[in-house]
Amino acid sequence: MVSSSSRGKASVRRTHRGEGHPARDGEESGRILSPYHRHDPKNEPGNIYPPYKSSLARGPRKPLIVLPHTLSEITGPVFGHGEIGEMDNDLTRQHAGEPLGERITVSGKVLDDNGRTVSNTLIEIWQCNAAGRYAHMVDQHPAPLDPSFSGAGRTLTDAQGNYHFTTIKPGPYPWKNHPNAWRPAHIHFSLFGTAFATRLITQMYFPGDPLFPFDPIFNSVRDPKARERMISKFDLALTRPDWSLGFRFDIVLRGREETPFENKR
Ligand SMILES: [Fe+2]
After folding, report:
1. β-strand pairing of 27-28 with 200-205
2. Is 113 part of a structural domain of the chain?
3. pTM of the predicted model, to two decimals?
4. I need a labelling partner for 229 at 20 to 30 A (CA). Which of 19, 25, 131, 250 fits?
5. Average pLDDT of span 73-93
6. Rg of the chain over CA atoms, in angstroms?
7. What positions carry a catalytic annotation?
8. How far is the CA of 127 from the centre of ligand 1 (A)?
């Protein structure tokens, strides 16, 4: 099956056999697939967080219905290396000229919450430019566009779950949530994981941002330790001498509920 990713770029194949497959839900090739951990509410922003005004209109007001994890949720798209272009993870080299701003390297590891590395998973990022403006018609913030910067990239994790991006540090930008509202600098991340149930869309922040206390989106995650995990760490070891500063951002996706350990049976 071929469909589009959330940003309409990548072709995907499902790992299961699609319509009419005779296997029971959760069973594939004679192997029983276990469901994934559910979201931990401590780590998630509430559906409605009044300081974040749009959540009042968008958030569901009735309790959510918990659905069983069937084959549709515990399988997912597989992305081939052939789909990813050579420059897709270097946002500074997608145009003839170089973008303005502070060049950075963003790297990390993708793990599940059983501590296992997640390899060959698609990561997509999108961000504004160094002046705080998105290359998008809806963004009319009076800051300059950069003709050498589109602000979108993607890559696959390697066999050890590692990923790397080179980009420009995004600027803070104003938004109309409340008077004098500014978003802390951030990069949007989308991860497909190994199954539809593990899909994660989040934002990566930068250490020491003075806007953290004032940002309702950042603070909609109520647990301070969970908020901390959205902040990248400056890492001198990732810095490329004379080229870019390095920031580490490790990401944890949901793992399977039934994890067999070697010493368990
Ligand atoms: Fe944003």
Report:
1. unpaired
2. yes
3. 0.85
4. 131
5. 87
6. 20
7. 134, 173, 183, 186, 188
8. 6
For 79, half-sphere exposure in the C-beta direction (CA atoms, 13 angstrom radius) is 26
CA of 170 to the centre of ligand 1 (A): 9
**Residue whose tokens read 């991860």:** 191
User: Does residue 8 lie within any of the structural domains?
Assistant: no
Domain that holds residue 128: 13-253
- CA separation for the pair 162, 107 (Å, rounded): 7
What are φ and ψ of residue 162, in 5° steps?
A: -90, 150
Confidence band of 19 (pLDDT split at 50, 70, 90): very low
Q: Measure the CA–CA gap between 143 and 154, rounded to whole angstroms.
A: 25
Give the CATH number for residue 64.
2.60.130.10
Question: Looking up tokens 């420009």, which residue turns up?
Answer: 168
| Cα distances (Å, whole numbers) of residue 149 to 90, 124, 127, 209 | 11, 16, 10, 23
Exposure on the CB side of residue 135, measured as CA atoms within 13 A: 15
Q: What is the DSSP letter of 228?
A: H
**Backbone dihedral angles phi then psi of residue 234, each to the nearest 5 degrees:** -65, 135
CA of 52 to the centre of ligand 1 (A): 14
Q: How far is CA 19 from the centre of its chain?
A: 29
Query: pLDDT by residue (tens digit) across 228-261?
Result: 999 999 999 999 999 999 999 999 998 888 655 5
The CA 76 to ligand 1 mean position distance, Å, reads 26
